[in-house]
Amino acid sequence: MKPVLSLLVTNIGLLATPEGRHARCGDAQAEITLQHNAAMGVEDGNIAYIGPAALAPPAETVIDAKGRLATPGLIDCHTHLVFGGWRQQEFLQKLAGGSYLDILAAGGGILSTTRATRLATEADLIDKAERLLAEMLTHGVTTCEAKSGYGLSFEHECKQLRVVKALNEKGPVELVSTFMGAHALPEEFVDDREAYLALLCDTLIPLVAQEGLASFCDVFCETGVFSPTEARRLLVAAQAHGLGLKIHADEIDPIGGSLLAGELGATSAEHLIASGDEEIAALAAGGVIGVLLPATSLYLGKPYAPARRMLAGGMAVAVASDFNPGSSPSNNLQLCMNLACLGLNLTPAEALCAVTLNAAAAVGQAQRLGTLQIGKQADLLLWDAPDLEYVFYRFGSNLVYSVIKNGRQVI
Ligand code: NIG
Ligand code: FE
Fold first, then answer.
1. Ligand 1 in reach of 140 Cβ (< 6 A)
2. What separation in Å is there between the alpha carbon of 326 and the centre of ligand 1?
3. Where does the pLDDT of residue 108 fall: very low under 50, low under 70, confident under 90, or very high at 90 and above?
4. How far apart are CA 274 and CA 287, in angstroms?
5. 110 lines ligand 1 (CB under 6 A)
6. With bands split at pLDDT 50, 70 and 90, how would you rate the model's confidence at 2?
7. Letter string b/e over residues 76-111, b meaning 16 or more CB atoms within 10 A of that residue's CB
8. The whole model's pTM is what?
9. Average pLDDT for residues 56-75, to the nearest whole number?
10. Ligand 1 site, residue 257, Cβ cutoff 6 A
């Protein structure tokens, strides 16, 4: 018979996927579809067949999964991927008991990475981030959100965003760009916060939106960083220019970031370690996805976000790495999947949804990514694992065997 598919992945022992084109919330986050002895066919980069291996149509190329587990490609929906330098010198301060906000207030932290990022050329940043992304791809990440926020000036924020654009054009990992000029107040504006906020709201946000340099705008709403009033001003400006809204909220102190996210109907609120019942109710009411970052809890020695209370309150929860050189210097989303179970107390089924469909929704791509369903982009992982539980139970090894992005085998 003449091949009708470009690619067929056959002999999938178990195909596990959430289903849908919107985030799954509350109890529905645990609903995963399981198919044994399955096959997935691809045409034009999209999924054209899912069903019994025995009934699959012929294809030009066939991959034999040899009984392995298949899931959607992983989506790391919160990273600070592009930065100059590292911060191993602060590791000693941290081990000696220095807190994250103390280090930042002393001119370290985000500000030290800003100095290094400003010194780096665009080519340096592309080269470094490309290698980090390649590592993420081998661990199963097929789509990655990347925030600016280490430039903190017109020139260097634009430079960071151009790096993300260039990496997205190179592929194979797809990038979603977030403008985060409100990551910290740059040192040269310490005596004039208003001037920096005006630069962000009146110049950078309109430019970033107009040039298509980012899809989202994010703000670090935290004690000593940006207040809820300032975050409101920034996010309202971003919304007026058509950017999606994200906010770093309740990471250390619950100062009102979640309440603002709920009120503005932000796409997502991130961290949420210190969220209480009032914050959860506001997020649920606003349909805001909670992007939880368990590696940051581990690394900062903080509690894990109250994921179970969020699900009980009807929220949708996503899980991401928060990869950055300070609070989460790991780009390993598989580790975060383990921590999603061990720290956040999600079940493997809930955690799978958290790094696939709900992560896709957190970057505004749930219509085309995040599940294995006909019509969606063919982003699929084969795991050296017999079932879903195994993936979450083993930890510290890379269990990904093969990666297919946009219908093409890339690992
Ligand atoms: O999400 N909290 C703010 N931003 C990052 C940390 C950035 C850094 O320390 O360089 C975070 O944890
Ligand atoms: Fe972050």
1. no
2. 6
3. confident
4. 19
5. yes
6. low
7. bbbbbbbbbbebeebeebbeeeeebbebbeeebbbb
8. 0.98
9. 98
10. no
Q: How far is the CA of 201 from the centre of ligand 2 (A)?
A: 21
Q: Is the CB of 159 under 6 A from ligand 1?
A: no
In the predicted model, is pLDDT for residue 102 greater than 90?
no
Give the pLDDT band (50/70/90) at residue 1: low
Handedness of CA 73, 77, 78, 79 (dihedral sign): positive
Ligand at minimal distance from the CA of 178 is 2
The model's pLDDT over 204-213, given as tens digits with 9 standing for 90+, comes to 999 999 999 9
- Cα–Cα dist 247/241, whole Å: 17
C-beta 113 within 6 A of ligand 1: yes
Return the residue whose CA atom lies nearest to atom 6 of ligand 1.
327
